[in-house]
Amino acid sequence: MRTGGVQRAPQGREDLSFGLDAHRGRAEVSEAFQGYSGQAFSLRSEKGRFTLPPAFRNAVKLSTEDRTLCLTAHERWPCLVGFGTERVKEFEAILDREEESAFKFGRDFDRDTRAIQLNSFATMPFDDSGRFIMPEHIRNLGKIGDELFFQGGGRFFTVWNPARLYEMGQELAVAKAACEVLEKEARAKGKKK
């Protein structure tokens, strides 16, 4: 069942994340990983931590052994890609598919370079509330400031600096519209504190 509502953090907590379509936020540990969907927003706290919103946090927990978030640069877009450690097991199959596709269509493919790209992710632990510290080189890679927009993408999710997302074309219109609403709500809540 999809709630479609805005998920708000309890009063008095450092969790400054907001989300739309947070149906995965109620996932139980015994469930199997079903992917990432929906949108959410997080402001960096005074302590320099971001919060992995509940819908994404629970999905990452289901796709990792030890509450570890993986982040790296997106292959084509100016954003980051997030996933749990279990996705690493898919990398060889991804390389095989991409190599086969390149061969089929007569494109160049450097398997070693692509393997390095896939495996150049940073790992960071997150606590029960989803708080994590993003390494500086990853923040620089994604041009991340004090806010994050999360967009589900199935086997992974994207993490955006909202300003960079707003520069994207019509193909990301739904994400941009959700980001605008969630950013406005997060900033209004942040001013109340």
Describe the structure.
- This protein has 193 residues and is of the alpha+beta class.
- The protein has one domain (6-85, 122-192): 3-Layer(aba) Sandwich (Chemotaxis protein chec).
- The chain contains six helices and ten strands, in the order ββββαββααββαββαα.
- The strands form two sheets. It has an eight-stranded antiparallel β-sheet, with helices on both faces. A two-stranded antiparallel ribbon has the order 4-8.
- The longest helix is centred in the last third of the chain and has 20 residues, at 173-192.
- The two termini are 33 Å apart.
- 33% of the residues are buried.
Q: Under the CATH scheme, which architecture would be assigned?
A: 3-Layer(aba) Sandwich
Shape: globular
**Which sequence of strands runs across the widest sheet?**
1-2-3-9-10-6-5-7
Question: Which CATH C-level class is it?
Answer: Alpha Beta
| Biggest pleated-sheet summary | 8 strands, antiparallel
Terminal CA distance: 33 Å
Break the fold down into its secondary structure elements and pairings:
Blueprint (H helix, E strand, L loop, with lengths): L5 E2 L9 E4 L18 E5 L6 E2 L2 H9 L5 E6 L6 E5 L6 H14 L6 H8 L3 E4 L5 E2 L3 H6 L5 E6 L4 E4 L1 H5 L6 H20 L1
Antiparallel strand pairs: 1-2, 2-3, 3-9, 4-8, 5-6, 5-7, 6-10, 9-10
Helix pairs in contact: 2-3
Short description:
This protein is of the alpha+beta class and 193 residues long.
Pick out its properties:
193 residues, alpha+beta, Chemotaxis protein chec, eight-stranded antiparallel β-sheet, two-stranded antiparallel ribbon, 6 helices, 10 strands, 32% helix
